[in-house]
Amino acid sequence: MICLQFQPMWKKNLVLEIEGIVNSMKEEWSKVYVENFKNILVNYCEKKSGFITGRIHYFKNENTTISTSRGDFNEAGSGERQQYVAAIKGSGVFMDEKLIGWIDGDETQAYMLIKGKARNGVITSRYNDGKDSLSYVFKRSKSKMKAEFDGNKISFNIDIKMTGRIEVLYTEQNILKEEEINKMEEAVSETVKHNLEKLIKKAQEEFEVDFLGFGEYIFRRHPKRWKEIGDRWDEIFPYIEVKYNAQAKIDNSGIISKLVIN
């Protein structure tokens, strides 16, 4: 399921157009997430939490290339509409059958990291007091979630670990020094923590909807506790404490081979 944000240019091929967009962008940099419709139905029936799914919108592009038949392309004409292309960017947040808001690509990536669904991704960070920048590509990520109960107080701990490489780097520093590598790892980790903070704050304060799976976790791991609080989870969720940590590791092998050094 996806959120359609535009009027299709070729209505009779709408399904094929959407399928092509999803297949070409799905899981790209882990900033695109398309929920399985079966999971949406299960979520709706159990009513434990909200959910997200990809947002399709369109934007202007003077060098538009769109996959479609020659007949449909000619039918569309050569006017202004040809300058718009569709893409999946960010996600829509739902509760029951209602769309309640949007999260951007970085927040979608943070969501996928929390849920353990981020297979790969790119993270752009600045370091050395903002003087240098880098692009970090992770190929592996692991997420652990743990709930703690202290009387009526509920808190969660989220721990995310990533392993990847530096794809692009703009710096004048000696990148072979361990100290410099540590700085880059810390910069990426801080970027991820910042995105986690934005996402969690939006879920608790702006939407007041648990689409991150905390209620699902209690339901599965602590069923007795869920029986006590499940009916009031919508009221409880905005006030739970969420602690999070992110640790990015750079695979030093081949660190030089693909760098663009300024």
Automatic annotation (TrEMBL):
Coiled-coil ranges (or none): none
Pfam families, A to Z: Spore_GerAC (PF05504)
Protein name, entry field: Spore germination GerAC-like C-terminal domain-containing protein
Species of the source: Acetivibrio saccincola
Spans through the membrane: none
Record domain Spore germination GerAC-like C-terminal: where: 90-254
GO CC annotation terms, alphabetical: membrane
GO biological process, one term: spore germination
